[in-house]
Structures are given as structure tokens and as C-alpha cells.
């Protein structure tokens, strides 16, 4: 009897040992496709478990295929899987929950760390923040970030500034690097026409403030990382929306998406039209986005996107103060007579590959191409451009441990070759006349970078990085080739070294402090070296800057209160400023130096945040930016502007907001924006008035049945009906500074979504 019992026990133990099996997988955020480090993997009803590493991977011995595995991490809905299912499902997607934002992973600086452990000043916009406003423009959402200012000079003509970096640019974006799905997003002339981007196709924005040369090369203002919308894993759907509003606003979108554990594809078409608030300010834009991701294994990811835009908008021109006060909706008469406008067709192509060789080595490589065609009849000039640009970016990361402390080493580079054929004619009432000059401009630019990030004793995280940047312009006036042998010019930029050092201290799980010293440089763009007056401004020098920064972020009161406070001191040399000549042409010069000091703060209190309560969310928040920006050693002709306020930068910007969501699907978002008066010329003799804006959006989202989802919403902008000028012409000739923004206006829309498949 004892022998039989012993044999039975041994047989059970042997069979149990054979039943046990090693299971592995990778935990990923469903909406961003980013790995989730520190996720808990446990067996339901047992004490066994593990956590994912910094790449989201885990390995766990599970007794039986019938056991249930629980995957959880703060900020995401937990998921339960049978071990048998896990055997065939190596990628596990978690949906973000209505929890604290500080748990969201930041991809910038190649760290993939929670924002609480990111040693930099970062602004983050998730779908929740982007959907607080209408999807017609990114302007209101970006302007909620302290230190970030986006202006609209004319309908669909934008300028983006980070800490005063590029408000002096005549159009587009300069001093700021911009990426779309990790692909550099830039035109061949060195600027970025943000108007090519349809706001509704963007699902996430990270803004890295200040010089980020250790990873992103040239750019004294910072880096903006845009991510397009992506399909949810396990869901296939069709979606359509329509929006209408004041001043002839019409917008239509159609989207098809499908997602699985092995792939995801999305295509969206967006059509937006506007008659315009002012005379000569209509707009018409068609945008098509095709994006996809492939996950052939848990080690590699392929991604691609194609973005095509066909854009047309009219240019009303700036007004004098007298004209602005008399009729802010008027256009400049010469703009009407000459039918000034801009037509731009552009396509941005990118593909990327991420590969995790093993637990230590990984690589991320992207290739891209940018092509565009521009027609721009202006007051005295008609410009036609054909642009093409291509290049690539790669970075390799080695993750290891030094004395049991994690460390990460990154090495990479980025290169871009651009070519633009720019022809300038006389403007014959909106048609090209006599050829004035024909230019060909080739640009080669790139950088190599290295960065090390190490955890130190005492909960410190140390970052040291640098980049070596190079750039060269080759300019040829081919229209002069038959009359002179000196029709070629060149503008080489000496290699620039840009280091960055940062230290972060995790004081406790809810509080961290960070400090950094970084340098950056910003080369002059093609449009600054070769302005529309036909000159070659090869004397123009790159801007160079040194930035000191100190900040605190964290949460309190059981994470109901969150805060982010940062102070910075930035010294910029060879500052590029602009002024307008009598013909309305913007020309450029270096203006010595500027000293830019500021404080940025964000504060939020969440009274209610519970998906199971009748009121799911009730939250108030506020952001504030103080900018003490001054010229130094700036002499222009006989005028000394040293000590003057930096043109185009308001010293105070304060926003407040309220967010409400209910279990029934009702929601409301209210936003106020106070911007103080700002100087419009370098002499500080003309100022734009301060303004207080109030806007709101409210609606209802409902699941109509198992297959249909619907949303009905409406909104109001500038509810207080304030007269203000948002996109000012700085140093405008003849006192023409003001570009009036719309007064009180409304919009309403509907969105329908049909779920073909929902896992």
C-alpha cells in the first residue's frame, strides 16, 4: 500500500513538472504601440509573478494551460488571458485608462520613460487634449502648452514658436525640429509648412522644449514629435464625420481602419473648406493619410505612412492700426487686386523598422521622402517652386547594467539632401508675367549623435549626449548663366557641436526634480538666405544658444493634484530678425544676442476620475508662462535696441480649463486664454493689445448598438467676441502689423463609426 501511494505521488509530481511551461510575451500600449515597462504579470489566485523589462518583455513559468494570467500597469485597463491563449499571443495590448497622465511613456530623447522620470521639459497632448477643440486646427490645442505659441497669420498660414524661438519667421516653422511618426518633416527650403498637416489625422504630440541637440540635431527652440492616428488592435471599423461652422466652414472625413496583433492599417480622407472671416481669406484643403504597422514577430516592427495634401488659401495681407480699427475684416487692397494666394501640393513618405536583436541591442531606422509644388502670387512677385527631399535616420541602442543599475547607450545619425527649383516672375493679377530670376538650391544637412543614460545610486538618472551637425547650401541663379560666370554661390555652415547634460532625482514615487544644460544652433533657412527681393544673403550666420533649466513635477493628494514647474535661462547669439521693405518683401539680418528667461507652470486637480461612476471625470486645470525676453547688443543703422523686449513675444500667457464627462456619454470642455500685450516692432513703439478668449465644446458620445458608435457635438470660439490680432506681421513696413482673428464663431458636427470587428 505504501509503495503504491509513493508511485502515485511520484507520478503526479512528474506529470505536474511536465505540465509546467515557460511562457513569454511583450506588453504594448494599444494606441501608441509603445512597450510598457514595469507591467505586472501574475497568475490569478497564486503568488507567482514577474514584471516586464524596459522593452516590455517578460518570461514566466506557468503550471497549467488552464491558469489565468493577469497583466496590469498603472494608467491602463488590466487584461486577463488563459495561458493557452498566451501561448499563441505573444503581443499583449493594453488600453489606456482614465488615470494619471504621469504614467504615460515619453518617447522623446530615445528613453521611453514615464514623464516622471524624463529629465527635460516636455509638453504632451494625447487624444483627450486634442479632442477638447474642433479638429479644424492644431492652434488651440498646442497653445494650451506653457511656452508654446502657435499663430495663424491668414487662414491656414501658421507659425509655431517654442519659448519665442520662431515668431520672427515670415512663415512656417524655424528653429524647431519636427517629426511625423519618427520621420523628419521639413520642406527643402528649411522651413515647415504646418498647414499641410490636417489636425484630425494627429493622435499624439510631444513637444520637447529647448535645445535637444543630443538626439535631434540643429534647433534652438526644441522638437515637436507628431504621431498619426492608428487603429486599435483587434478592431476593424469604418468612420465618417461632418462639421459645419461660421464663415462658411465645412469639413468632411472618411476613415477605414483595421488592426490585429500582427498588423494595423488606416486610411483617412479629409476635406476642409472655409470662406474666411476676412476678405481674400478663403481656404480649400484635401488631405489623404495612409499608415500601417506590421508586427511579424515580437522582435521587430515595420511601419509606413504616406501623407498627401492639396492646399489652396488666399492672403489678405496685414492692416495698419487705423484700418484694423475701422474694419478688421478688410483685406489690403493690393492683395485683392493682385489675387495673392498660395497653392501647395505636398507628399510626405516614410517607412521605419524597429528591431530588438536581444535583451541588450536594438535598432530603429527610418527612410523618408518629401516632395512639394508651390504657386505663390504675391503683391509684386509670383513664385513657383518644385521641392524634393530625401534622407534617413538611424539609431542603435545598447541596454545593460552597471553595478546592478540600468544603463542605456545610443548612437545614431540623420541625413537629408534637398533640392528646390525656385522661379520668380512678375505678378500679373494672379498670373505669372516676366521671369525675374530662376534659382536652383541644393542643401545637404545632417548630424551624428550619441547619448548615454544611466541610473545612479540614490534614485538619480544621469543623461549625457551630444551631436555634431553639418550643413551646406549651393545656390545657382541659372537665369544668369548666359550673362555671367559668377552665377553660382555657396553657403557652407561650419560643423557645430551641441552637447547636453541632464540629471533627474526621483525624490519619491510622486515627486521628481530635473536640471539640464544644453546647447543648440539653428542655421538660416533658404528663404532667409535667398529672400524674395532676389538677393543672396550669404552673410547671414547661424543662431547659437546655451540653455539652463531646472524643474519639478509630480502629484499629491492621492494623485488628484498634478503639477509641473520649470524655469529656464537661455542666451541666444546671432539672433535672426526680420523686417519688411517698401515692396512688402521680408528680409533678414543677425541682431547680436537675446537673453530669454522664463517660468512655465502646469497645474491640474481631478475631483472625479472613475469610469464606473455617473460622472466619470471632473477636472480643472491651468497653465501659465512668464517670458522675460530681451535683446542684447542689437544695433540697426543708427538705432540701438539693446534691452528692448523681444518682438512678437507676450510676457504673460495664462490658460484655464474645465473638463467634464458622464457615464451616459455627455461631455463638456471649457477653455479660457489670456495673452498680454506684445511688441510688434524691434523699437517697442507699437504693441498688439492683450486679449481674453473663451471657448467651449460639448457633445454626447453613445454606443447605439453592438456595431455602431455616434457622436454629436457643438462648440463656440471667442465667446466674449473680442477683437484681437493673432498672427501679426512683425516690423511691418508702413505700419502694417495686424492680421485680425475671427470674432465670435460657432461650429457643430456629427461622427458615425461602424465596427466591422471588435475583439
Structural class: mainly beta
Strand content: over 45%
The end-to-end span amounts to 53 Å
Compute the CA-based radius of gyration. 27 Å
Task: Summarize the biggest pleated sheet.
Answer: 22 strands, antiparallel, barrel
Q: What is the arithmetic mean of pLDDT? A: 85
Structural shape: globular
- Kindly state the percentage of residues in helix: under 10%
Give the tally of β-strands.
44
The unreliable regions are: 9-18, 98-102
Multimeric state? single chain
Number of helices: 8
Can you tell me about this structure?
The structure is a single chain. 7% of the residues lie in helices and 57% in strands. The protein is mainly beta. The strands form 9 sheets. It has a 22-stranded antiparallel β-barrel. Strands 10-15-16-13-14 form a 5-stranded mixed β-sheet. Strands 3-2-5-6 form a 4-stranded antiparallel β-sheet. The radius of gyration is 27 Å and the shape is globular.
Write the layout of secondary structure elements.
Elements: H1 2-19, E1 21-29, E2 40-43, E3 49-51, E4 57-62, E5 68-72, E6 79-82, H2 83-88, E7 91-94, E8 105-106, E9 113-114, E10 122-125, H3 127-130, H4 139-142, E11 148-154, E12 157-162, E13 176-180, E14 183-184, E15 202-209, H5 213-216, E16 222-228, E17 235-245, E18 249-259, E19 263-274, E20 283-297, E21 300-314, H6 321-326, H7 333-337, E22 341-356, E23 361-377, E24 382-402, E25 405-428, E26 431-456, E27 460-477, E28 488-508, E29 511-522, H8 526-529, E30 543-556, E31 561-573, E32 576-580, E33 586-590, E34 593-609, E35 615-632, E36 635-636, E37 639-640, E38 652-662, E39 666-675, E40 678-679, E41 687-688, E42 691-703, E43 708-717, E44 745-758
